[in-house]
Design goal:
The chain has an eight-stranded mixed beta sheet with strand order 2-9-8-7-6-3-4-5, sandwiched between helices. By secondary structure, it is an alpha/beta fold. Strand 10 and strand 11 form a beta hairpin. Helix content is 45%, strand content 15%. The protein binds pyridoxal-5'-phosphate (PLP). Pyridoxal-5'-phosphate binds next to helix 7.
């Protein structure tokens, strides 16, 4: 057989799920952003300026030298037992009274938590209610298991409960199986919005009425900018029997460690454990050992207050720059924590169509439409303040304001 002459139709080889996979809108932008003159308000990654690199280097080298026999070995699928125990104790102090190691699982990033949770809960065609807008990685994980994603309106207080109820009723009437609510309650990616306290209770009520599971994705929880914003009750603490709670060390230590955790009702945690065994046997023993040491030595607790100050200053700078530069008829969120502002341009503007002009002017953002599962949000942009310096944020927003004003003049 002439191997070179054989043409393989890869579409035919791919699974149904793979044929439906779409490239992540943010990753697609990455090659455009490599030019150094571009101020990029697009990437949502934490700033490397605040990775505690010296401390982590010291812990890593000590662990490899002194505890190589476990840190470089395979280990239990649930995760490093010391870290699971440390997390259980840490969570009990923070409102998760009923958490025990049987509810806990360490995952390879919270992205894996989302992937595993959706895999054990959802069949093709099951309805999941997601916020408008929502996190791209969550949307991808849900797509991967064939879920039907239904968008629910958000306002400044997060999910609009009447709309949530209406969407559930609509899909029930269509004969669809409504299974889950996916929410990012604190300083949401991409909107920066925080779910109001009373709505947390209302969402749990709705979940109880309709027998739904809530997936609570909470990686920004500790990056809050005021004490009020830091004290909101997790949905999981309101009703642990209905919630899979997912959190991560990515934003408070470093995402390269890929160490995160989830808390789930015991029967669900047990299924996720089996699904995880099939995915990667366990998360990296070395990374988990490093994080365990970072927790136990107090590094995490010492480090996080500085992160809050660091990101709050950038939030303030971005809010001020938006105030000064954005055209009339636009608005934006003022996040109480996290990394992101959602900017809403006057209706006529299409943020995706405007991106080449913005890049030409030396500033980049993520067009918001990719975050809205109902195809709305074309006039929105996600502006991340986590990465660039305050000076560059100011200049980036100045450039963006000029591009927007020029484009609006053009529209007139
Ligand atoms: C809302 C949300 N969930 C999950 C993740 C994934 O984080 P990781 O897998 O690094 O824990 C991110 C990362 O940006 C996020 O914004």
């Amino acid at each position: 057989v002439d191997i070179d002459a054989v043409k393989i139709d890869y579409e035919d080889v791919l699974s149904e799920v793979a044929r439906g996979l779409k490239p992540n809108a943010i990753r697609k932008l990455t090659p455009l952003l490599a030019r150094p003159e571009i101020i990029s308000l697009a990437p949502g990654a934490p700033s490397p300026d605040v990775f505690p690199k010296e401390e982590l280097a010291e812990i890593a080298s000590r662990l490899i030298r002194e505890r190589w026999f476990s840190a470089l070995q395979y280990g239990p699928t649930r995760g490093n037992a010391g870290l699971v125990q440390a997390l259980a104790e840490h969570l009990q102090l923070r409102g998760f009274d009923k958490v025990s190691p049987a509810n806990l699982l360490i995952t390879t990033g919270s992205q894996q938590g989302l992937d595993l949770a959706t895999r054990v809960l959802l069949d093709r065609g099951d309805v999941v209610l997601v916020e408008l807008p929502s996190y791209i990685g969550g949307i991808v994980a849900l797509h991967n298991c064939g879920a039907r994603l239904v968008g629910v309106q958000q306002d400044d207080g997060g999910i609009v409960i009447d709309d949530l109820r209406e969407k559930i009723d609509q899909h029930r009437q269509l004969g669809h199986r409504v299974k889950c609510i996916y929410t990012i309650p604190n300083f949401q990616n991409p909107s920066g919005v925080t779910l109001a306290s009373d709505r947390r209770h209302q969402i749990i009520e709705v979940a109880r009425e309709h027998n739904l599971i809530v997936i609570e994705d909470d990686p920004y929880r500790d990056i809050y900018f005021s004490d009020d914003a830091g004290s909101l009750t997790p949905l999981s603490a309101i009703d642990p029997s209905r919630v899979i709670y997912i959190n991560s060390f990515s934003k408070i230590l470093a995402p390269g460690l890929r160490v995160a955790w989830l808390v789930a009702p015991e029967p669900i945690a047990a299924k996720i454990e089996i699904a995880k065994e099939g995915a990667d046997l366990s998360s990296s023993q070395l990374d988990m050992a490093i994080v365990n040491e970072a927790m136990r030595s107090g590094l995490v607790n010492r480090h996080v207050p500085g992160l809050r100050r660091f990101y709050r200053e950038k939030r303030d700078v971005m809010s001020g720059a938006l105030e000064q530069n954005m055209p009339a008829g636009s608005d934006w969120t003022t996040p109480a924590g996290g990394f992101f502002v959602l900017y809403r341009a006057p209706e006529a503007l299409d943020a995706a169509a405007l991106l080449p002009a913005a890049i030409e002017a030396g500033v980049a953002y993520v067009p918001g439409d990719a975050f809205f599962v109902d195809g709305s949000g074309k006039n929105t942009m996600r502006l991340a303040f986590c990465r660039e310096t305050p000076e560059k944020i100011i200049e980036g927003i100045r450039r963006l304001g000029a591009v927007l004003r020029r484009s609006l003049e053009f529209e007139d």
